[in-house]
Amino acid sequence: MRAPVLLAALAAVALAPVPGMAQEADLTVVPPAPTDYKAKTTSWGEPDLRGGWPIDHLNGRTPLQRDPAQGNRAYLTEEEFAQRDQAVQQLAKRYENEDSQGTMGIGHWAEVANANRRTSWITSPANGRLPEYTAEGKRLSGEMKSTWRRNQPFNWVDDFDSWDRCITRGLPASMFPFMYNNGRRIFQSPGLVALQMEMVHETRMIPTDGRPGIPVQMHNWMGESRGHWETGNTLVVETTNFRPGPSATNIGTTGSPPENDTPVSEQAKMVERFTMTGPDTIIYEFTWTDPVVFTQPWSARLEWQRDDDFGIFEYACHEGNVQIRNYINASRAERAQATQPASGGSR
Fold first, then answer.
1. pTM score above 0.85
2. Helix axes 94-101, 78-92, angle to 10 degrees
3. What end-to-end distance do the CA atoms of the chain give, in Å?
4. Which helix (H) or strand (E) holds 327?
5. If we measure between CA atoms, which residue out of 128, 292, 284 comes closest to residue 204?
6. Separation of alpha carbons 298 and 172, rounded Å
C-alpha cells in the first residue's frame, strides 16, 4: 500500500487550462492525438515505448461514465473543476488524518491523485456513457455474480467473478485506473511488445511480427492480441478471442455500473491505439465492439505519463486463496442462522 501523494509535477497539469482551449472553447471537443512527435527508436528500428507508464495520476475522481447533467461536454467548467479539486484534496487527507488518530482504514488503502478536467473516460458515444445493452446483453448481465452485488448468497466458486477469484480483471477493465495497483510497464523486443500490469500480476503479450491469429474456437481471459505500427509513433493493437460468459469481466473503475455487471461475448473486439506524443507522454485510446452485448461500439481515451521510478508491488492474491472460502462459509452460516427460530421469550 502506498500513501496517497499529490505530486507537485502533476499539479500544474491538472490546474492548467484544457490544451489548446481558449476561454470560449467548445468543451465538447477532445483534440485528436498529435502525430507530429518523432519518437526515438529501438536498436531494431521500432518506436521505443519502453518504460514505466503507471496510471495512478488518473485516479482523481474522473468517472468512466459522464453525469447526464453534463450532456456532451468532455471537459468540466471552471466551477465544476474547482468542486472536484476540493473533493480530491479532502480525500488526499485521509491517510494523514488516520495517522494522526492512530488508525488504519481506507486512507491507507486507496490512492488519490490530482483532479483533472475530463468529465468521463468514455469519449464515444457523445454523451460519455456506455451504450444500452441488447436483449442478450441484459440477460447475460442479469446472470453475472460477484461480491459487488448486494444480498447475493455464495455457495460455490461460480458465485464469484474472475476478479473476485484473483484470475483477471479482464479487458477493457484492466486498462482503467483503480484505487490502487495502477502500475504499468512496457517491454519490447523485435516483433513483440509486453505490457506488464500491477493489478492481478498480468502481462499482456502483443506480437507485432505479422503472425496470424489463433483459431476462433480458442478463448482467453485477456483475449488474443496482434499489433502493428502506424504513422511512426502509434502502436495499434487488435484483440479478439475473449473468453465469453456472464462472469467474464467487470469494469470496476469510478463511475462504472454499480454492480460491475458488464459481460463479454465471443464476438467482442478491442482496437487500441498507443500514440507517443512526447518523450514522456502517451495518448491511449480504444474502441470496444461487442454486438451481442452492446447496441453500438464505445470508445475511451486516457493520457499516460512516464514514471520510470514507479515501483510495482507484488499482487499477493491468487486463484484458490482463502477469501473465497471465507465468503462461502460466512454466507452459509448467515443463511442457516436466519432459518433458526428466535430465542428467548416467556415460559
1. yes
2. 30
3. 55
4. helix 322-338
5. 284
6. 11
